User: Fold these one by one.
Assistant:
Number 1:
Amino acid sequence: MKLRDLLGQDFLGNDAAIEPAAAALDVTGIALDSRVVKPGDLFFALAGHKTDGARFIEAAIAAGAVAVVGDHPPQGGCKVPFIVVSNPRRALALAAAKFFPRQPATIAAVTGTSGKTSVAAFTRQIWERLGHNSASIGTIGLVSPKRTVYGSLTTPDPIALHRQIDEIARDGVTHLAFEASSHGLDQYRLDGVRVSAGGFTNLTRDHMDYHPTVAHYLAAKLRLFRDLIPQGGAAVISADHECSAEAIKAARAKGLRVMAVGRNGDAGEGIRLVSAEVDGFAQKLAVEHRGKRYSIRLPLVGEFQIENALVSAGLAVGTGSDAANVFACLEHLEGAKGRLERVGERNGASIFVDYAHKPDALAKALQALRPYAKRKLIVVFGAGGDRDAGKRPIMGAIAAENADGVIITDDNPRSEKPEAIRAAILAEAKGAKEIGDRAEAIRAAIDDLQPGDALLIAGKGHESGQIVGDRVLPFSDHEAVAAALTTRGA
Ligand SMILES: CC(=O)N[C@H]1[C@@H](OP(=O)(O)OP(=O)(O)OC[C@H]2O[C@@H](n3ccc(=O)[nH]c3=O)[C@H](O)[C@@H]2O)O[C@H](CO)[C@@H](O)[C@@H]1O[C@H](C)C(=O)N[C@@H](C)C(=O)N[C@H](CCC(=O)O)C(=O)O
Ligand SMILES: Nc1ncnc2c1ncn2[C@@H]1O[C@H](COP(=O)(O)OP(=O)(O)OP(=O)(O)O)[C@@H](O)[C@H]1O
Ligand SMILES: N[C@H](CCC[C@H](N)C(=O)O)C(=O)O
Ligand SMILES: [Mg+2]
């Protein structure tokens, strides 16, 4: 592909800045990391959070980069053409979209502090059941009819994301639901994806190590509506939160078709939740949409799953599926792995694995399980190292307030001292026990279960490793529960 076709005037407005000889260069790949540059690549030098890609321009050229894109040319000059752009991260994403041009015809993206993985999985399941070839991309990786690929980021870097989208489109996927994290939106990872509908679940404390203020965090999320979905696209917004009005305002200002969903949802174009009651490990819902009422048996535990299900239903309806058929699909939803998943039972007590690793999610998960704890509700959890330290005491207090028994353990300590992380949580978790080894903590909690208890193991959900230092040790809450049940007996 010619350099001029990758960095065209249509999106950069800087075509004039590209020398004719450079514009005619053949580019055979794009790269954002000098360590993976191949001969023929166009290298994007990105200023990052730890270092600056500009420091690796020479390394990239030595590896075969034929041209470099950045916001300032290197002081000592550059041996290959250097193209100056004002926003290299956005230029990278838009170039990736040109380099990997195929995309499913229908794409929905979901943002929000909690519920993205669940909404992406539910939307994929609804479309699949309606007969579409469907995929999802996010925290649990890529799930599509032809392949499942474990992922490490919620929104992959632009090259990985656009490559994956192109591959699934080639496989015949026509419908894609994917997660737009605030990091991803802030770093322009998903620019260039042709998103026809956006979902917004909620906004609570998260990532305060990255975003300087809550307003900055919300603004990053609202980029989905402000910058990524073209006029006329659908914006499905959970209407039950403090931030809902601002999200709706941003979507309206862009000329999107707003569908407000939830208890405060719009019974006309949106979906209004009229009633909800727990029914065993399911919930019975009544909803209204366009003057009609629908009864739905949602086969999922946890009130928050109603929000996720309604945002997903909205995304399917907003992209053209028939509402009655969509609501019927909700009766068959399966939870994403490790999201309030009932993984076993001992002594008549249910054991759940959940991915709550932020304050609001932990509160919601505990509140959701209260109806299943006729006796005590026990929680085992920790907090990740090298992540927002401010959330630790808050989560400790939430556990102490909402559970009857608390065990603080480790959850990906990364480069931090695990005992210091535990101490920060314990500071506000009055009466909690401390068992650092996560398998041991799970075993101890399971050992003590009495009939009528419920156990929540929170924070790792689907994860398959424990990150200690820079090593990833194989670990899964599912396997730890299974091992404890095997040795102790169910
Ligand atoms: C803090 C953060 O978000 N960092 C992301 C960012 O990296 P960065 O640009 O800041 O990296 P950097 O290390 O400063 O390097 C700057 C540049 O120099 C380049 N470089 C560096 C070294 C070298 O030898 N050669 C070279 O070219 C790097 O490739 C990079 O382009 O851009 C990279 C490319 O898109 C991301 O992979 C990387 O995610 C890191 C790995 C990460 O851990 N991110 C997490 C926090 C994250 O994004 N999480 C979100 C949210 C999850 C949630 O909602 O809970 C997610 O979407 O997963
Ligand atoms: N709508 C919701 N409101 C509040 N909490 C929720 C909601 N949905 C899920 N949760 C909680 O958040 C956890 C993570 O859910 P999910 O993976 O769907 O969200 P996510 O936004 O993708 O999270 P992450 O950003 O960590 O990938 C769940 O295990 C549950 O504890
Ligand atoms: N996407 C989140 C996941 C956190 C999961 C939790 N187990 C932890 O390691 O803190 C992050 O990277 O911050
Ligand atoms: Mg997720």
Number 2:
Amino acid sequence: MSYGRTFTEWRAQAPDWDAYTRHPFVQGMADGSLPRDAFLNYLVQDYLFLIHFARAWALAVVKAGDLDEMRACSAVVHTLIDHEMALHVETCAAAGIDTNAMLATPEALTNIAYTRYVLDAGLSGDFLDLLAALMPCVLGYGEIGSRLAAEAAPDTPYRDWIDTYAGPEYQAACHSAGELLDRAIAKRLGNAPQSSPRWATLGDRFATATRLEVGFWGLGRA
Ligand SMILES: Cc1ncc(C[n+]2csc(CCO)c2C)c(N)n1
């Protein structure tokens, strides 16, 4: 599967991409062996993660260079707050964890590290720095979702999670994000961005965010 040219190149150069998308936590969702408590720990942390991630996409609206970029980024803010977080709220509610309990849970250090890294990429850099740090999250889950939809055990209890990220709405959002990235790169770095001095730095940001994703799965310990 492909979510655009830039992503394909950065992905190939991020040493931890497979450690992220094929993490034991992910394989545990696929075969159903992941303990429920581990999943719920992850989901509560992920709820807190998404709050700051929505702030980062809102910062992307501020850092955008034209109305099309603003529209694309504000759509992600909306999707995140009104759709993606609903999965977390509903799944946790079914396990007796309400939103107040989720909000009262201290953020884990690896969670703080990840979201604040992304926010700093945007605050200290420009739109491209921020997009490079945002992409592993969006596109990695797209890749995981569509692989698990094909490979997961039919009776895995994590079917809702898989369906959310494998579904046509989320996959369409991934294609839009990949296009947004390709257009943003072409607009600022031209048609041969690999020869820009910024290319390596942007790839490093992508690789660092990928590393932070690997750490995030570690939060799902029962
Ligand atoms: C640690 C972590 N990484 C990635 C995602 C997935 N995700 C976060 S924001 C976003 C884009 C808008 O839907 C997506 C897909 C997650 N939930 N948690």
Number 3:
Amino acid sequence: MRYASVVLDIPTRSLDGAFEYAIPPELEHEVKTGATVLVSFSHRVAVGYVVATSPVPPAGLKSEKINPIEQVLAPPAFDETAAALAAWIAREYACTLPDAIRPFLAPGQKVKVTRSAPDAPWELQNERAGAVDARWAALALAANDYEPARSASRQRAVIEALREGPQRVSELSATIPGAASAVSALEKRGVVVVETRRQIRGGDQTTLSSAAAPRPEHLTAGQRAALAAIDAARTAARGDVVLVDGVTGSGKTEVYLAAIEHALAQGTGALVLVPEISLTAQTVGRFRSRFGDNVAVLHSRLSTGERYDQWDLVRSGRAHVVVGARSALFAPLANVGLIIIDEEHEGSYKQDKSPRYHAREVAAELARARGAALALGSATPSLESLQRCRAGSFRGATWTRVEMPERPGGSVLPRVTVVDMAEQFRGGGRGVFSGPLVQALRAMVERREKAVLLLNRRGFANFLMCRECGCVPECPHCSTALTYHERGHMLACHSCGRSWPVRAYPDPSTSCPNCGSRYLAAFGVGTQRVEDELSMLLPPDVEVIRMDADTTRAKGAHQRLLERFDAAECAVLVGTQMIAKGLDFPEVTLVGVINADTMLKLPDFRAAERTYDLLEQVAGRAGRGERPGEVIVQTYWATHPAMRAVASHDRSVFLDAELAERAESGYPPFSRLANVIVWGRSERDVRAVTDELAAAVRARVGRTPGWEVLGPADCVKARVKDQTRRHLMVKAPVDADVGALLGACVAGLSRRAGSNIAVDIDAYDMM
Ligand SMILES: Nc1ncnc2c1ncn2[C@@H]1O[C@H](COP(=O)(O)OP(=O)(O)OP(=O)(O)O)[C@@H](O)[C@H]1O
Ligand SMILES: [Zn+2]
């Protein structure tokens, strides 16, 4: 008899830890680690996941007292190492074990079970995602001597079509009426063979010229150094990390491709993470053109069926390179030699629902557990990664930074001009585009090239700003920017809770607290308005393509817009953050940033870092080919270090000031920051829970150096959908086990009375 440890997935209860069950002999071949099983638990059936099996009964239990596993519901989806990783995630991010295990399951797998009759076997109520088979027809040898009857024109057409190669019967039927019966007739005569093949969904195609990845003749010196460092880390096989710190257009993708080639040559596979939004045909195409069918692609814009097929390619060992969004980390690739995270600074690597993990941290742990290397790439690495490289190691792994300061083939970084918009306003400029940007756009059109215009939408209309002096009202007590609440006509401070009534422009009572101007207005213009103004400014033969949440909603829309931009002779691409990264169009010679500073005033300690990252990334879209590029950054805060750093292509201008400030105030990367959010319908309950939680955390933390508990206070978004939201922030030393401590505090609450609690370790969203 063997025994299995099973983690139960019972939605309404949080049971931590695994329970022991016996494996009946008839199920012995099916009950493996990673399998989904049905067991009985307190007199009803429950779904669970096997996380370990053992030949000996658990200590202290008599074998006849152990309940048997009743049924196997789904085959193994993960192995022992993955099970251990899930346990690590649960502890590190203070979530339940089933929450940590679910990302590893097959796409579409659900927790609910049903059965058709009282004694029928139970089945999972999965989304319809399982494998799909297609019937393929092909000519048999006998076709060479076969002459269809004169009346059999359909048979003739089918044979004709199949001479080009095998085809799906459904496809034949679409072009030849009655093809299916002709195929059956021909099959009976032995002229055609029909076979069932697994259909694989989700292998999208593109016409984008830049989606191919022709192998360059030689790598640059920077690329060679980066590749050597990654190879060395892979050979060391203990989870060492290499940060590829390469300027925009320096050829990081080529480094990844070469490193993966080396990994494959040694019989190991690779996981490649790219931000969801840049998982476009362009990026995927580069990997496919180098590795063909050995690539599986996983992201959320695929249908469940498509994701299932791609996932199954990995599990069945047919694909060894997985390219995907952060969840690709959980793909069933057993023999991982290399993990790559492109644009590692991206905030989207942090998941905002349970499990609230950060892909960089999970990848580091996975690399350690699998004896693989982790390569992080960015033109604007996160302060966390830079700091770990300075220290040389983190959590037992070596962190090495390799610089790639040059673009290959002699192309140079673009010239950057910062335009002070307050000055433009004082000079009478009231439009969306400053004088210098208008001139640059006209010159670009004359040269018949392409331009990219970024409209920053984050932080939009969250605060008031004076158009004349650029001032943003701040709290006199906390020096955080005041948030504007349009409905209540009020400015509020989210650190101390104070608020002031105010009316924004065009109300006649408006007045800037700094200069008295009446142009104190909510901040922002929409992409639609930019598009309209552009059309008025430029000749009609210039194509204007708008890319934002509205125009990219439809499936494949993102790709079609880029293909249009690619195919155009002279065009302007206007878009939100989604256009800032990854795009590689050599004809783009102008990049304009309409409003560089909307994020700077957000009550978020990473606001400046995010602004710098975004500007540097979008600037990097210019001049990637032979022609030099130009960048125009419009801002009301021309002296901010982020602007100056981008203008001079010198990160240290921003970095030194920023690191000093973070060290001073004890923010990451010099500490860990956890945000505990409590929300619910009753404000009283929410307050009671946050107060108890704050007291519990303070009691545990005591006066331990490096720990600090802030709050409780209202969240920036204090009310969402009629629910009150309060939070508590906890700062801890970088090596502290924050998740375990906060998890225990939450578990020890005396009551949670209709409140929801989210423990967000290493939080990115402070709102
Ligand atoms: N060694 C090389 N020789 C010539 N061309 C190269 C070489 N390496 C890369 N390239 C080309 O340089 C261009 C930029 O490369 P890539 O897109 O990989 O840059 P990147 O570093 O990822 O940039 P970004 O961070 O801005 O997205 C691509 O068109 C690529 O084909
Ligand atoms: Zn205040």
